[in-house]
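Checklist before submission:
- one chain only
- standard amino acids only
- sequence pasted in full

Submission:
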Amino acid sequence: MKRSIFVSVVSLALLVTAAAQKTSVPTFNQFPARVEKATARSIDFKKSDGAWSFRTRLTEALRRGVNFAGRYILTGWGCGTGCISGAIIDARTGRVYFPEPLGGMGTGTTDAGEYVEEPVRYRNNSRMLVISGVPATHPEGREELAPGDYYYEWKNNRMHLVRSVLRKSN
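Returned file contents:
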């Protein structure tokens, strides 16, 4: 009897461990977007609060064309050492969105203390965006931000957290 309980407990522990290992991070393919060739003539400054302050960067990005989520243009700029900010432009309308997680994020470091080479990852044919480092605002509203990889879906002109994988501290 004791042996069968022991075997059952060990089996259950192995199953839970195997299931946890199969839990993977989201992939770009899980959030497909049809790429459009739409390009607005100009940035819509009237409907885009705060866009005027970044008019040169936004106008240059609009000229480069769609690079994110099928019809959007993701662009960014530095905001100090280890900090970047960004915006998302709707290539159909020229409207600019400033999602909170892109509003001054720490660009993150590797375990060796080096800066992450690609702090924001995205594709033109996917609605997923990955921030490696620390987003400007914590997805769960907590004050303390932990470095890691934050996986967002761009949906209804907002970033929605899908998953976060925090880095282990040394």
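Reviewer check: The radius of gyration is 20 Å.
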